[in-house]
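This entry is set out below.
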Amino acid sequence: MLSHHGFVNNTKVYYYRNPVDTVATICNPLPFFHVYGMTLALGQPVVRGQKAVIPNPGYDTHDVLKAIHTYRCTELAGAPTMITDIISHPERSKYDLSCLTKVVMGGNIVTPEVRKLTEKEFPGAKAWVGYGATETTTAATLVSHLDPESKRLTTVGRPFAFVELKIADPNTGVETPVNEPGEIWVRGHNIFLGYYGDEEKTREAITPAGWYKTGDLGTLDEDGYLSVIGRLKDMVIRGGENIYPIEIEAVLNAHPAVEECLVIGLPDERMGEELCAWVVLKPDAKATDAELKEFCKGKLSHFKVPRYFVYEADYPKTAIGKAQKNLMRDAARKKFNL
């Protein structure tokens, strides 16, 4: 349950982070049942008197291109998969997208490579990336054009005004040292009221002190910038070692044949869990398990090199492009008879 107070005030603090763009025309291809599409991408133009462009009742990449071109949109909001789909669309060159000054991405981890690609393909625009959840009334942190490039391209920024954030040991709640991973906890005006009809689940998610335990893993650096590692439930424990899939994904995504790679954990009787890389290859590219394992050597500790590899044209996604890792695990377990 989200509050009107949280909705309005989160839109206002977004403005504090971004006070210069008062006459923006925002292209919003996101579904309104998603918190990002409902709040910042729609609430922002309503509260600030900006123009909102809705390309399609559903989602169609070609319609987004036409909308940006026709209405001279200055800002594009979307999930990273939407942005990469726009960049790779075969008819993109037919449209003038030079009006874009900002591409705001969220809803999934946005790699430095995707941010750099976005700014390369839209030369007049900066990539803005935030972090949040439905329970935080969309974004709780955000980078901006004012942040150093090293932070803007690698982190999800600092908390909004009036929002607190800490990294805590998920078992004890004790705050972790700078740059040490832990669970991301958020507190502030933007925190949801609770899960409707489920007081027990609400108590599990929100501490008596008002901290929302996100279930996400991250680190805070010495300047207060947040980096997201992944979901707590996605962390793989292999032979007693905590392994974060994002580290392995970053290495494999750098392979010249790999379009995209996601890493999941699969059950193993001896080690507890084993690593499985779900690989989407570039068009006409080829790669073998042995080749990808060799590529990992020297870049990853030996116990972080995946044992299993799945090669598919894509991976299961939600309506806004989030990976459905539960379905990926089910498919991989079936493939390897686990």
